[in-house]
Amino acid sequence: MSSTRTKLERGRGALGPALELVHTGRAPTRAVLTAELGVTRATAGAVAAELEALGLITVDSRPVAVGSQGRPSHRLTVDDAGPVVLAAQVHSDGFRAALVGLGGRIVATAPGCEVVDPDPAQVIGAVVDTGAALLRQSGRRCAGAGLAVPSAVAEPEGTALNPIHVAWPAGSPVRDIFAERVAAAGIEGPAFTGNDVNLAALAEHRHGAGRGAHHLLCVATGHRGVGGALVLDGRLHSGSSGLALEVGHLTVNPEGRPCFCGSRGCLDVETDPLAFLAEAGRTPGPETSLLHQAKELLREEYGDPVVRGAARALVDRLGLGLAGLVNILNPDRIILGGLHQALLAAEPDRLRAVVADRSLWGRSGGVPILPCTLEYNSLVGAAEVAWQPVLDDPLRGLAAGA
């Protein structure tokens, strides 16, 4: 009896690690799962069977050959019909709600509004209502909810300290507002809130361009402004109070544009979509987001010498900022999102040369600089934090969302 109980407890303790391995694609077969967990084949089989019974993964009943050697093994995938979480993002041009399954799969998504209300409760309530409608239409079980906001989020209070691009009051209690609206809408499971670029970096590390990196630096523009994040061995480095990696306020042009932070020439105002449009002498229009307008200009009119010159000016400023971060953080990979991703595509050699020329470690180590690969990566990242209790303990996490 004691031996049976010990085996059962060992298997239950492996449920979370096993689910995370399947969730991130690191255990595509039961044989790989067995090796990664360091357990017997029987234990791995029991763990996979229990996760399948919970509706979280599927185990292919027919073993498949893996590689040129070794015996066939059962393929493991997340269950496409399994639970979802509600993921939401607020940015300067509106919001987006989505339902996201395990594996970072976006099941359904819906945008909303073009002008963000200065009262955070109004827009957060609207995005939760949109998400609740998606849930009703899907009929899917919900395991939790996550929200990405364009601001540093202080821990443990969950307040937005600098929501300057959405005109919310500094210190807005976004986490409490989101949790209250989620509960009021009858959405099951816990609710979490975080900075949009932090969450994008987490998503890219688990499912996108950052997979396999141990020290991943992410720098990205939003619809306005610039953010950064660092993922160390799979965990976000958020500092002592959630405020680490505010890279948007690195000075890259001392005589440059005034910044909202009170300084001048920060990445936030020298390399974001509005800065590019201004550098190219273009007046932003009201019809689409600044990010869309900047990307479209870069894509369609790069042959124009003025547009090309504007892009190169931003690349040089971005490269200077990245070089400083490389010297301080020594990452093994850099990923770029938003307009920075498009600038990398337009001038890859120039950007890498600036970083190498201005950074000691960039010159000697050649830090890879890659584009982000996930669409809606902040949304997927918001889903990741909502999924985390289930990944930590599938039985308890699903019970919390029941």
TrEMBL record:
Q: Which UniProt keywords apply?
A: Kinase, Transferase
Q: Which InterPro entries match?
A: ATPase_NBD, ROK, WH-like_DNA-bd_sf
Which GO terms label this protein's molecular function in UniProt? kinase activity
User: Which is a Pfam family this sequence falls into?
Assistant: ROK
Which family does the record claim for this protein? Belongs to the ROK (NagC/XylR) family.
Q: What PANTHER family does the entry give?
A: BIFUNCTIONAL UDP-N-ACETYLGLUCOSAMINE 2-EPIMERASE_N-ACETYLMANNOSAMINE KINASE, ROK (REPRESSOR, ORF, KINASE) FAMILY
The name this protein goes by in its record: Putative NBD/HSP70 family sugar kinase
Which organism is this protein's natural source?
Answer: Streptomyces candidus
